[in-house]
UniProtKB/TrEMBL annotation:
Catalyzes the insertion of molybdate into adenylated molybdopterin with the concomitant release of AMP. It is an enzyme of class 2 (transferase). This is Molybdopterin molybdenumtransferase. InterPro entries: MoaB/Mog-like_dom_sf, MoaB/Mog_dom, MoCF_biosynth_CS, MoeA-like, MoeA_C_domain_IV, MoeA_C_domain_IV_sf, MoeA_linker/N, MoeA_linker/N_sf. PANTHER family: GEPHYRIN, MOLYBDOPTERIN BIOSYNTHESIS PROTEIN.
Length: 433
């Protein structure tokens, strides 16, 4: 059980904090809510298919299910770091007729010999250094080492290479068997490139977590200009990208009105039972039109997080059904919902895929933030300054129902209950996509 944290009652009024004995006992602190989501996500692993093997082009965005090891040394041969000549010993150097250039298995060099080389080319045995092309001059009949010539290579004044210059020894990046990427790594294009150069043709990846999205609300319209009393759907175009960006996969979607019957079907029908995480939008309040919490209770769900001591996103709910599926109920206000995604869905999906937990990244605050006792705040913010002066400044238009601030934000600034002073240490989370 998580210890109850101070919170703030709905309807208390902006800026009016309630005495501690009047605060709801079910609110979890923001860190405790993230920990609960991580533990719940880890529990999904037993309900997911085992790892699958996919070819490298299909691996971007997937999560490694096994450590990736180097199948051979990287690089697996000594190579040149520059275009020029591989040289043996001090100069000047003789250029053998028809000297090979660049790649393949070149013949060995004797002391006083040189051979043209391209960047990445295999160095002949006996090479002591590479002389860059712009630092050498060739003299002789052919002037370039052509067949029949007696060309001589000399370093320009002051440019004689010392031993080892511009040589990439074998194994400088990794030895055979070295750990390149640990299990739980999310594969971006750079990681897939590492797997390729390490000799992998396929990789083992975790099964993606199937997610069902349920959009609620009689007042929500999906196109055009909403009439008074209606609102445009901000979730349909955004949440699939959030799920994919966090490592899940959208298995199904549903759009329902404000009725108990529709809510029960959306949470427990055949499509809902295929998913391991159900994400609902809106309907998390206590009005007669809010059915998510009552429906979850009727279906026997265990409430793991029933409100979070944070702004925005306080009404978010995380529950677990008897069959192990998770329900993440998001508030209806767009910014509040996306903050709840960063707070609860991100750690749940990471844990389900076997990825390590994430924590706020250290930064500096660019402005004062007043205290809000008992509550964390997550605020869209932008980087300002550079170098040692780089800091995060809260964006404008960051009310729980506003999206303009998030649209131009770089990160979510985490403001602790005690507030922040300009220049103080703070933390940030990446945006949930």
């Amino acid at each position: 059980m998580h210890q109850a944290e101070p919170g703030r009652l709905a309807g208390a009024g902006p800026g009016r904090e309630l005495p501690a004995h009047d605060l709801p006992v079910h609110d979890l602190s923001w860190p405790a809510a993230r920990e609960a989501a991580k533990e719940a996500g880890a529990g999904l692993a037993a309900h997911l298919p085992g790892p699958e093997t996919v070819p490298l082009p299909a691996a971007v965005g997937r999560v490694l299910a096994a450590d990736l090891l180097a199948r051979y040394a990287l690089p697996h041969y000594a190579s040149s770091a520059m275009d020029g000549w591989a040289v043996a010993g001090p100069g000047p150097w003789r250029l053998p007729p028809a000297a090979p250039a660049g790649h393949g298995e070149p013949p060995p060099l004797e002391a006083g010999q040189a051979v043209p080389i391209l960047t990445g080319g295999a160095l002949p045995h006996g090479t002591t250094a590479v002389l860059r092309r712009e630092r050498g001059a060739v003299s002789g009949e052919g002037g370039s080492g052509s067949e029949g010539s007696a060309d001589v290579l000399s370093a320009t004044e002051g440019c004689a290479p010392s031993e080892g210059t511009d040589i990439r020894p074998a194994g400088t990046e990794a030895a055979e068997g070295d750990l390149l990427l640990p299990r739980g790594t999310r594969l971006n294009p750079g990681a897939v490139a590492v797997a390729a150069v390490a000799g992998a043709d396929t990789v083992q990846v975790a099964a993606p977590v199937p997610v069902r999205l349920v959009f609620t609300g009689d007042e929500v319209v999906t196109s055009g200009i909403p009439a008074p009393g209606q609102v445009r759907d901000a979730f349909g175009p955004v949440l699939p990208a959030c799920v994919a960006g966090l490592g899940g996969t959208v298995d199904s979607t549903a759009r329902i009105g404000d009725s108990m019957e529709a809510t029960l079907e959306a949470l427990d029908g055949p499509a809902a039972r295929r998913a391991r995480i159900l994400v609902t939008t809106g309907g998390t309040g206590a009005s007669p039109a809010d059915h998510v919490r009552p429906a979850a209770r009727r279906l026997g769900a265990e409430f793991l997080v029933d409100g979070i001591a944070m702004r925005p996103g306080h009404p978010a709910l995380l529950a677990r059904f008897p069959d192990g599926r998770l329900l993440l109920a998001l508030p209806g206000n767009p910014l509040a919902a996306l903050v709840a995604v960063a707070t609860l869905l991100e750690p749940a999906l990471r844990a389900a895929a076997g990825r390590p937990a994430s924590y706020p990244v250290p930064c500096r605050a660019a402005a004062d933030a007043p205290p809000l006792p008992g509550r964390h705040r997550l605020v869209p913010a932008r980087w300002i300054g550079a170098g040692a002066d780089r800091a995060l400044a809260p964006a404008e238009h960051v009310g729980s129902a506003m999206m303009r601030g998030l649209a131009t934000a770089d990160a979510l600034l985490v403001i602790p209950p005690e507030g922040l002073r300009q220049g103080a240490d703070a933390g940030w989370l990446p945006l949930p996509w």
